[in-house]
Design a protein that fits this description.
221 residues, alpha/beta, Rossmann fold, nine-stranded mixed beta sheet, globular, binds S-adenosylmethionine
């Protein structure tokens, strides 16, 4: 996909920037504060950070970015690149193409930490979940990395917005039952459930629009 076509990408592009402009200081705030807490606690021992799908950095802060000496950003949306530079004028971003084959990460950036910025639950690959999940985990083995990613999204409001921490993976049904304990649930599965089943994980609700909520998972390796 060309970089200009990313303006109409289903997981980003112009529509996403307009939503961010409209909601990031209101509806998105609890979620953004939760991501800030996760990033605050994530302390990779490297000075080089690779951001993957950061958009304009709506979920990032200068304080977090300042912890790194070098920042590469795999972000194909040209408008996102412009806005990212504007939002963080003190940071020099080394922009790179979209992530295709994850093996480029350790090959091109062996000394870096990788942050998947709500990318893994988007349409970033044509491979099926059963193919990309094990392949990605194999590539990331031994590297510092973290990811926050959509797990499911729905029009139904959850029981509450309190974040959840778990010591390991539980079934998707049990997890959904925690946030939506009863009633019918029509959802979009973002196909990220099941990553690294033995790792601790965290969950937060992102009220994307007044009538759409996402359940987001945080994982780190
Ligand atoms: C849901 S948005 C990210 C949200 C953003 N991290 C935030 O918190 O506001 C997904 C982003 O991934 C980018 N993207 C899509 N496919 C990609 C790929 N294969 N590699 C890197 N970035 C990609 C899109 O341009 C978009 O900016």
């Amino acid at each position: 996909m060309s970089t200009t076509r990313y303006l109409a990408h289903p997981s980003g592009g112009l529509a996403y920037h307009l939503r961010a402009w409209r909601y990031r200081d209101t509806l998105w705030l609890p979620y953004l504060e939760q991501v800030a807490d996760w990033l605050q606690a994530w302390r990779p021992a490297t000075r080089h950070l690779v951001l993957i799908g950061p958009s304009a950095g709506y979920s990032l802060s200068a304080g977090f970015l300042d912890r790194f000496e070098r920042i590469s950003a795999m972000e194909p949306d040209l408008l996102a690149r412009v806005l990212l530079r504007q939002r963080f004028p003190g940071v020099r971003f080394d922009f790179q193409d979209a992530l295709g084959d994850p093996r480029v990460l350790p090959r091109n950036y062996p000394d870096a930490a990788y942050l998947f910025c709500n990318l893994l639950g988007q349409q970033w690959t044509t491979a099926s979940r059963d193919t990309w999940q094990p392949a990605l985990i194999e590539v990331l083995n031994g590297q510092p990395w973290a990811s926050y990613h959509d797990l499911v999204s729905t029009e139904r409001q959850p029981r509450g917005y309190t974040a959840l921490s778990l010591p390991a993976l539980i079934s998707l049904d049990d997890l959904l039952g925690h946030f939506w304990p009863s009633g019918e649930l029509h959802l979009h599965d973002h196909e990220t459930h099941g990553l690294l089943p033995h790792r601790p994980r965290r969950y937060a609700i992102w009220q994307l629009t007044p009538d759409r909520v996402h359940l987001v998972e945080w994982l780190q390796g």
